[in-house]
Amino acid sequence: MSSLHSRLSVAFAVMLFILLAGLGIVLGQFFQLIDHEITKEVEIKYWYFLLFFLLISYLITLFIGIRVIRQYTKPIDHVKRTAQLIAKGDYLARAPIDKNGGQDELALAVNQIARNLQETSILRAMEKERLKTLVESMGSGLLMFGREGSVNLLNGAFEETFGVTREQLIGKTYMEIGLPTDFERIIEDVFLTEQVQERQIRHRQSFLSVYGAPVIGRHGNWLGIIVVLHDITEIIRLEEIRKDFVANVSHELRTPITSIKGFIETLLDGAMKEPVLLKDFLEIIQKESERLHVLVNDLLELSGIEREGFQLNKRQVSLQEIVKDAKKITSGLAERKNMRIIDETAAITVMADADRLIQVMVNLLTNAINYSKEGTTITIAALENAHEVILSVTDEGMGIEAKELPRLFERFYRVDRARSRESGGTGLGLAIVKHLIEAHGGKVAVESEIGKGTTFTIYIPKRTKEL
Ligand SMILES: Nc1ncnc2c1ncn2[C@@H]1O[C@H](COP(=O)(O)OP(=O)(O)OP(=O)(O)O)[C@@H](O)[C@H]1O
Ligand SMILES: [Mg+2]
Questions:
Q1: Where is 226: in which H helix or E strand?
Q2: Spatial separation of the C-alpha atoms in residues 363 and 354, rounded to whole Å
Q3: Which ranges of the sequence are coiled-coil (predicted)?
């Protein structure tokens, strides 16, 4: 589009031409009035003169006129060009301020608009960035549908949970996406009822808590819906563990208590008058109450270790001493099963709680003895490297199936319940071992082969971070 300046100039030139042409025609009539006997030749001469005069006036007026027009239209043209640039999104464009042109107010106003737009666009960009960071770092999956019912926002956590990508989802309706049916139903319900929907769904191995809500604008207008998902797998798992734990404790306590109660009732019903029965039953009651005692002690022990503020009494201890004490404690049990314990512990010292380490070794040795055949051998070895000491107990026992290994250190977990109970086991021994070693900053590992034997290995770091 041509500038205002050129359009006005053309208009001015045309108008001036018409004006002067008119003037020329009018003036031409005067030739006859001034001189009645004018010859044709003189009249032509006059005409030439008039035309020449009009042409000169035309050119001079045009020249001056165009200059004046330019002076007034130049700033307007600048402002127009600036406004066009701003309209295209270049908020940095500014109109020059011409102090003499008298049009600076318009330029100032346009520049102010440009500045405001620039600030608004910076603010918008910042807001957008902030929203993006928030949406991405919120940790929970987020999916948003716009007014027209298609996806217009989702975050990385959502992509990860459902294994989809942004490009696949943006612009699609919930029915086109192909999300799990349970999840689709929640979205559908929010769309249909325009009410908040909160439900738990299962997706592959995870449990998700899904919260869907309509997004209502300030004036009550419907803007779409938002769906947020939290991964609650860990909470559900902990809840299961808690339930299991309560069930297990109750079960473990019930067995000896039922037995004690039964025998006491039998005694009271008359059996106590028979000295042989009396002695037998009392012995059973003693054994069962001993079991209860061990169980409650172990439970207290575990909860003590787990409690915050659990303190280890650390000092430099000799592994040989630890192993010697543990062997002494379990020697009666080993002798009864005619088992040999080979001690290959090297002269190594480590910063640890001696009593706790002995407790760990006694637990491992007791297991090695209980779950091995008579006459087999147990080997205790100790090594060290630059970072840690490694203590292992190897038996030639029955071994543990690979699928059992991951759960071995759980409380009350026993591979063979009947056999373990027979040996007086509560299933808490390895849980205690694990907690005690972890309290030392170390870890426990187990390797086993059915029928060949099992090796439990303890790693204790030489330098532990002081808590
Ligand atoms: N050396 C081993 N060889 C084979 N199985 C073992 C061995 N050590 C542990 N197990 C298995 O792991 C289970 C858990 O052991 P854990 O020491 O925690 O409990 P427990 O021996 O049954 O009872 P306690 O609390 O009295 O130790 C045992 O029931 C047993 O089935
Ligand atoms: Mg045990």
A1: strand 222-231
A2: 14
A3: none
- CA-to-CA separations, 133 to 126, 156, 320, in angstroms, rounded: 10, 11, 57
Residue 362: which residues within 8 A CB-CB, separation 6 or more? Answer: 326, 329, 330
- Report the distance separating Cα 15 and Cα 7, nearest Å: 12
- CA of 343 from ligand 2 middle (Å) equals 20
Say what the alpha-carbon torsion angle 412, 415, 420, 425 is, to the nearest 10 degrees: -30
Q: 219: CA distance to ligand 2 center in Å?
A: 68
Cα 231 from Cα 347, distance rounded (Å): 49
DSSP characters over 71-129: HHHHHHHHHHHHHHHHHTT-TT--PPP-TTTS-HHHHHHHHHHHHHHHHHHHHHHHHHH
- The pLDDT tens digits of the residues spanning 420-445 come to 666 667 889 999 999 999 999 999 99
* 0.85 surpassed by pTM: no
What is the C-alpha separation between 151 and 143, in angstroms, rounded? 7
Cα–Cα distance measured from residue 226 to residue 206, given in angstroms and rounded to the nearest whole number = 21
* Range of weakest confidence among 1-15, 96-110, 286-300: 96-110
Q: Are strands 377-384 and 340-344 parallel, antiparallel or unpaired?
A: parallel
pLDDT at 53 over 60: yes
Among 252, 290, 369, 371, name the best residue to mutate to test ligand 1's pocket (greatest count of ligand atoms within 8 A of Cβ). 371
- Long-range CB contacts (within 8 A, 24+) of 51-57: 51/24, 54/20, 54/21, 54/23, 54/24, 57/20
Q: Which atom of ligand 1 is nearest to the CA of 428?
A: 25
Per the CB < 8 A criterion, the answer to whether 414 and 437 are in contact is: no
Which atom of ligand 1 has the smallest separation from the CA of 398?
A: 4
